[in-house]
Write a structure and sequence with these properties.
Layout lengths: L2 H12 L2 H6 L5 E2 L8 E6 L2 H23 L4 E6 L21 E2 L18 H12 L8 E5 L5 H13 L5 E5 H13 L3 H9 L3 E5 L8 H16 L3 E6 L11 H8 L2 E5 L4 H15 L5 H10 L4 H18 L5 H7 L1 H8 L4 H12 L3 H4 L6 H17 L4 H7 L5 H17 L1 H22 L1
Parallel strand pairs: 2-3, 4-6, 5-8, 5-9, 6-7, 7-8
Antiparallel strand pairs: 1-2
Helix pairs in contact: 1-3, 4-5, 10-11, 10-12, 11-20, 15-17, 15-20, 17-19, 18-19
């Protein structure tokens, strides 16, 4: 076993089986070209090469250092290279390399995207654009809150075309601006324009940051026109609609609106559960249904945050050599939930429950004992206790109850109902999800 094989064997111990099988297993150590200070690996294609280079370089350097006490430079080349003149993915001989500014994440595909009612339209239109670029919906403007899947769909379109050998540029608006400024200063704007105008697809993330950037807006306007007039596909994401981006010039706003705009709403509980299950499947993580439901109900709607929570649980479980139980999960994410609780008020809970259950807010705070009012009041108390930082005495005062013992009794009763009535449990989870969603949207 050569040093490269030893390093890959050690790396296998530090990453998930799925990542190893999908990426690392495809690497071949180049014994002829590698030296103590520079190491060459061959990858089967550009996507795998870029992904490994962006994610595993530091780990590989560290593992080589453990083997021979030297920190080498890591180069990932594509295919089995037969001569020294081949070009590694980290060094571009031309501005026309496939994915520029930021490499696409090869795991962000249409196949790995979980579709629900909240994102069905955006998914369908994104897939249609991928299959028929520049023809039907140009530009495609995807908008929605943070962490709902806009970037996933954007990169899925890019990965679809990378596999077809197309020239794809994926970049954030910030990187576009930085590149523009750098080329402007160095008086190399011809290179900048060649780069962004001679591609098959231009994918721009977070276009809302174009707000009030007059010079960048001017340049982007001409870039947009050049691509559009040549039937090249443009896909844009934003956290808001074009008409709500302050300081956006009218001629750009109207161009953003002339294609198709598709919004992504916060996911429902079932979609979040499906997303968590898919993430666990891809990363080889085992979580039982109770834990999955707990995360889906309590962690809000930011999918990146939910996926980060799953990764955190798995890492802690591995480091502590403990099974992931519900108690383990609750303890691991309690600080995150505490932060969320501080943003939720009892007023908001009562307002949402009254709307969903058709009960007046004043009735929940009254002495009424009709079945539907008692039921709504108990749910409000339960959510106030679990989703806000308020103590039982504080909740008792809010609902006009004698003292904290009344709250304790209500909590006991609702826990008994949860154990015996699955339908009620689902309703409770849905209401909890709506409260978290409403609060997050207010913050955004």
């Amino acid at each position: 076993m050569n040093i490269g094989q030893k390093v890959l064997f050690e790396l296998k111990k530090e990453i998930s089986e799925v990542e190893y099988e999908r990426y690392i297993k495809n690497l071949t150590y180049d014994t002829k070209r590698s030296r103590s200070n520079i190491v060459y690996f061959n990858a089967p294609n550009m996507i795998v090469a870029k992904w490994i280079k962006s994610k595993y370089t530091d780990k590989l350097i560290h593992l080589f250092e453990l083997q021979n006490e030297i920190k080498p430079e890591i180069e990932i080349t594509v295919g089995k290279q037969k001569h020294q003149g081949s070009t590694p993915v980290t060094k571009h001989t031309s501005e026309k390399s496939h994915s520029k500014s930021t490499y696409l994440n090869p795991s962000l595909t249409f196949e790995s995207f979980i579709v629900g009612n909240s994102n069905q339209f955006a998914y369908t239109t994104a897939k249609s654009v991928a299959e028929k670029p520049g023809r039907q919906y140009n530009p495609l403007f995807l908008y929605g809150g943070v962490g709902l899947g806009k970037t996933h769909l954007l990169q899925a379109i890019g990965n679809y075309h990378i596999d077809l050998g197309k020239t794809v540029i994926y970049t954030t608006l910030e990187q576009f601006m930085n590149s523009f400024t750098s080329h402007l200063r160095s008086q190399t704007m011809d290179r900048f324009r060649d780069k962004f105008r001679e591609c098959d697809l231009l994918l721009i993330d977070d276009i809302q940051f174009l707000s009030r950037k007059e010079q960048t807006q001017e340049e982007f306007f001409h870039t947009f026109n050049e691509l559009y007039n040549n039937n090249k596909q443009i896909v844009i994401t934003s956290d808001r609609q074009p008409n709500k981006i302050a300081g956006l010039v009218d001629r750009l706003r109207t161009r953003f609106e002339m294609g198709l705009m598709a919004d992504i709403q916060p996911p429902g509980l079932e979609t979040k559960i499906a997303i968590i299950q898919k993430k666990c499947e891809l990363d080889g993580i085992k979580l039982d249904n109770e834990i999955v439901n707990y995360i889906a109900t309590n962690m809000g709607d930011n999918i990146r945050e939910i996926e980060g929570t799953i990764i955190k649980l798995n890492a802690l479980s591995s480091m502590l050599n403990q099974e992931i139980t519900l108690d383990f999960a609750q303890n691991a994410i309690k600080d995150q939930l505490k932060e969320k609780k501080e943003n939720i008020t009892i007023d908001e809970i009562v307002k949402i429950i009254s709307k969903e259950l058709n009960i007046k807010p004043s009735d929940m705070k009254s002495k009424k004992r009709t079945k539907n009012v008692v039921n709504a009041r108990r749910i409000a108390i339960y959510l106030a206790r679990n989703l806000t930082p308020n103590s039982m005495p504080q909740i008792a005062v809010y609902f006009g109850m004698k003292d904290h013992t009344a709250i304790s009794h209500a909590m006991k009763k609702i826990n008994e109902i949860i154990e015996s009535d699955e339908n009620f449990k689902v309703i409770l989870e849905e209401l909890s999800n709506k409260v978290n969603t409403h609060t997050q949207n207010d913050i955004l």
